[in-house]
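Hi R.,

As promised on Friday, here is the backbone we talked about, encoded as structure tokens. Could you run it through your design pipeline when you get a chance and send me back a sequence?
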């Protein structure tokens, strides 16, 4: 990926040429995730949740991508926290159940993981 940071810094604040909108940050976080820069994506997604601004997308999407980024970067406690928060808002999100179950499994909490893995399979067809 080409680093345009110096160019972006130069334009930022000059006649609104480069506005850092919430949507722009969301797109960059998605790009970071796609590039497997999971820790960097997690930082940006956390910032989005802390300051959602004019969110044009669902916060469920942000939470889910954050949980995925945390899981892929082996931040299991964070994965558990974010997936649990997501399930409080949307208890029928199958991928959140899968992430929570897998994170609990990795932490050796197999008994707690089983209900979430079963729900992931029932709701979304994810095999555990």
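Update: got your reply. Pasting your designed sequence below so it's all in one thread:
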């Amino acid at each position: 990926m080409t680093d345009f940071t110096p160019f972006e810094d130069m334009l930022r604040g000059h006649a609104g040429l480069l506005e850092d909108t919430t949507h722009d940050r969301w797109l960059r976080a998605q790009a970071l995730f796609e590039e497997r820069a999971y820790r960097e994506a997690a930082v940006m997604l956390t910032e989005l949740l802390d300051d959602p601004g004019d969110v044009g997308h669902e916060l469920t999407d942000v939470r889910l991508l954050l949980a995925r980024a945390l899981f892929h970067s082996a931040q299991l406690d964070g994965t558990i926290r974010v997936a649990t928060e997501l399930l409080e808002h949307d208890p029928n999100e199958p991928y959140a159940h899968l992430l929570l179950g897998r994170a609990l499994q990795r932490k050796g909490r197999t008994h707690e993981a089983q209900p979430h893995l079963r729900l992931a399979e029932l709701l979304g067809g994810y095999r555990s």
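One thing I noticed while checking it: The chain has a mean pLDDT of 86.

Thanks again,
M.
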